[in-house]
Amino acid sequence: MVLPLLTRIDHVGIACRELDHTVELYRTTFGLEAVSFEVNEEQGVREAMLRVGAAAPPGLPGAGYVQLLEPLRPDTPVGKFLARRGEGIHHIGYGVADISQALSDIGGTGIRLLDERPRHGSMGASIAFLHPADLGGVLTELVQFVTAQ
Ligand code: V0V
Ligand code: CO
After folding, report:
1. In percent, how much of the chain has pLDDT > 90?
2. What is the pLDDT of residues 8-56, one digit of tens each?
3. Which atom of ligand 1 has the smallest separation from the CA of 40?
4. Of 10, 50, 94, 96, which has fewest CB within 10 angstroms of its CB?
5. Distance separating alpha carbons of residues 102 and 3, to the nearest angstrom
6. Continuous H helices in 44-148
7. How big is the chain by its Cα radius of gyration, in Å?
8. 115: number of CA atoms within 13 Å, CB side?
9. Using the 8-state DSSP alphabet, how is residue 41 labeled?
10. How far, in Å, is the centroid of ligand 1 from the Cα of 58?
11. Distance from the CA of 65 to the center of ligand 1, in angstroms?
12. Looking at the DSSP assignment, which residues form a beta bridge with residue 12?
């Protein structure tokens, strides 16, 4: 196992009821701009990525993001979260160099994997989630950038 498994903070995921309104709130309050809008049917979200800090060199990871998440339906992870807890921080996404290896290594520690294999994530990344109940109440996402990091 190559430690540490987590190489950087990729994004903070924030659940909101109205994506466009919240994007505008971050723009007018902080001057952050959305660099990507996507609908992810598998995850049940419409989401925007707001880059914080300088852009990474082309094709390289490095920038951190705020990920604003609006549920596509009530019976989705973010829809259920909003109903239960209201708007707020939903998950933290960490960069990993090799997501399949990281899943295997973390699975071996007994932490429950919500995804046994990587899924399609924002801006072409491969993502996988770990169970919040095994990580101090924090829903944790692994993110492998679109090219090797
Ligand atoms: C639920 N719980 C959470 C939580 N959501 N705890 C911390 N953070 C969260 N975000 C707790 C909840 O309070 C309950 O605790 C327990 O989990 C069961 O809650 P539930 O409402 O019954 O929900 P479940 O069991 O149906 O699902 C919860 C999990 C689910 C975490 C398993 O949301 C999931 O599979 N999430 C992963 C996928 C995801 O979140 N996708 C959206 C982001 P107590 O009361 O029992 O103690 S998509 C994304 O980030 C993308 C595309 C990207 O970055 O590229
Ligand atoms: Co995320």
Report:
1. 88
2. 999 999 999 999 999 999 999 999 999 999 999 999 999 999 999 988 8
3. 52
4. 94
5. 10
6. 77-85, 99-107
7. 15
8. 20
9. T
10. 32
11. 20
12. 66, 92
| Closest ligand 1 atom, residue 83 Cα | 21
Return the structure tokens found at 59.
Answer: 């094709």
DSSP E strands, the chain: 8-15, 34-40, 45-52, 64-71, 88-95, 119-120, 126-130, 140-144
List all residues whose CB is within 6 A of at least one atom of ligand 1.
Answer: 13, 40, 43, 45, 47, 67, 69, 77-78, 80-81, 84, 90-91, 93, 114, 121-122, 125, 127, 129, 132, 137, 139, 141
Q: Which residues, listed in sequence order, are joined to residue 133 by a DSSP beta bridge?
A: none
Query: Which sign, positive or negative, has the C-alpha torsion 79, 16, 100, 58?
Result: positive
Helices (H), the chain: 19-30, 77-85, 99-107
Q: Show Cβ contacts of residue 149 under 8 Å, excluding neighbours closer than 6 positions.
A: 7, 60, 61, 95, 97
Q: Which run of H or of E encompasses 95?
A: strand 88-95
What's the token pair of residue 125?
């990344």
Whole-structure pTM value: 0.96
